Amino acid sequence: MVDKMSQYKQKVGAYYNKRVRSRQFLVGDLVLRARQPSAHGKSGKLESSWEEPYIIWRTVGPITKYYV
Questions:
Q1: Which domain of life is it from (predicted)?
Q2: Does position 24 have pLDDT exceeding 80, yes or no?
Q3: Which of 18, 32, 65, 67 is most buried, by CB atoms within 10 Å?
């Protein structure tokens, strides 16, 4: 049972890795930030899913970016 589960996880991981697109953001790129669920009771159904476009102004590593 455990062997079949690990085989399934590897198969699903390989399927995902084959289809995922690599994204690299550079300084000056415009990005959208996913909006967090609000705590003040507004329904997220009719609100935008994204916050305004931000400009990347600094990169720290391959994943961490700072934006304004």
A1: Eukaryota
A2: yes
A3: 65
Write the DSSP assignment of 32-60 as a string of letters: --BPPPPSSS--TTSS-SBPPPEEEEEE-
Q: Are the C-beta atoms of 25 and 31 separated by less than 8 Å?
A: yes
3-state secondary structure 12-35: HHHHHHHHCCCCCCCCCCEECCEC
pLDDT at 16 over 80: yes
Structure tokens at 21: 């697109």
Element (H, E) at 48: none
